[in-house]
Amino acid sequence: MWMFWLWLGAVWPQSAGGKYCANRQNKQRASMMRWPLFLTGVFFNTLLLSVIALPCRALEFANGIEESSWRYEGSRYGCSLVHGVPFYGDAVFQTRAGENSRFKLKPKASRFESGKASLKLKPPAWRHNVETIDLGYVPVDKGLNPVQLNSAYTERLMAELLAGYELELVRAPWYGAEESSKVMISPIGFRDAYARYLDCLADLLPVNFDQVKRTAVYFGSNKFEPLPASQLLKLNNLLRYIQTDASIKAFYIDGHTDSVGTRADNYILAENRAKEVTAFLVAKGISEDKLTVRWHGERYPVASNATVSGRAQNRRVTIRIERDPALIPKGAESKDAEPSDSKFDAVTH
User: Fold this and answer.
1) What's the mean pLDDT in 9-33?
2) Higher pLDDT, 287 or 227
3) Which H, E and C letters describe the chain, residue by residue?
4) pLDDT of residue 124
C-alpha cells in the first residue's frame, strides 16, 4: 500500500498533465498535488516500519494485587494449595497420603509447547536491594499436565512464596506464535493458606489406596512362623487406611510359597500363612463376611525359584481390597502411578 502512494505521487502529475492538462495553469496545479501524495506515501512507509519493529512481548497470565488468592483443600487422604490464575487455570501444591509433595500446573487449555520453561523468583517490590533468583529450566510437556516438579523443588517454591517471592514460568506457546507464554504465581494470600496446609500434613494417613489395594506380606523361611515385625507394619498401615474408607467392601487373601519342599507340604504351609493373616485382620475388627481366603502352595510364583531373592518374593500372602465406587470418599480416588522423581527433576542451564 505504501509503495502505491509513493508511485502515485511520482507519476500522477506527468500522466495527468500530459493527458488532461492543456495549459500551464493545469500543469502547475498538478505539480502542486505531487507533494501531498508523496508525503502520504512516506507516512504509510514509516508507520509500517514502526509496526514491524515492535518488540515481541510475552503473553502473561497473572493476578492483580487485589485478585490474588490461595485456596486450601485437605483431608486425611491429601493436602493441597491451589492458586487460580485468570484465563489460564490453576497452580497446585499437593501432598498425597504416603507420597512426597508435588507442584503442578493445571491449565484449562494447552498453552505450552514441549521442551523447557524458565523458572525465576521475583522479589517483592518493597525489597529493592534483592535480585531475581534464576532457578534454571524445568521440563514441559504439551497438553493439560505441562509442568510437574518433584518434592525438592516443591518445598523450595513454597518456602520462597512464604518469603514473599513471586514465581515466574516462561515457555513458548504450543500454537506456534512468536510470543512466549508467561505464568505468574503470586505470594499474596499464601501465608494463611500455607498454615492450614501444614496442619493438614500432620493428620495425613501413612498410605493411600493405591499403596494398599494390593499388599504383599513376606515370610522368611520354609516353615510356619509368626509374622515378622516389618510385615506387621504393613498390615497396621493397611488397617489405618481401612478404618477411614467406608467404601471397602471385600478382601481377597491368598497364601503362596516357594518351591522348596514337597508340593503337599507347601500347600499346607500356604494355608497356614493365609489363615494367620486372616486371624490378624479379624482380631483388629475386620468382618469375616468380607474376607475370601485361598491358598495355592507353589503354583503361582512371581519370581524364579532358582535364586534366593526369587524364592523370598514367592513366600508371601497377598491381600487385595475392593471398593464400592459409589462410596469412595473425596480425595481417596485411585490414581494412575506417577513417574518417579527423576522425570520431574529440573534441567540445568
Assistant:
1) 46
2) 287
3) CHHHHHHHHHHHHHHHHHHHCCCHHHHHHHHHHHHHHHHHHHHHHHHHHHHHCCCCCCEEECCCCCCCCCEEEEECCEEEEEEEECCCEEEEEEEECCCCEEEEEEECCCCECCEEEEEEEECCCCCCCCCCEEEEEEEECCCCCCCEECHHHHHHHHHHHHCCCEEEEEECECCCCCCCEEEEECCCCHHHHHHHHHHHHHCCCCCCHHHHCEEEEECCCCCCCCCCHHHHHHHHHHHHHHCCCCCEEEEEEEECCCCCCCHHHHHHHHHHHHHHHHHHHHHCCCCHHHEEEEECCCCCCCCCCCCHHHHHHHCEEEEEEEECHHHCCCCCCCCCCCCCHHHHCCECC
4) 80
Whether the Cβ atoms of residue 314 and residue 257 lie closer than 8 Å to each other: yes
Mean pLDDT of 298-322: 96
Residue 275 confidence (pLDDT) above 70: yes
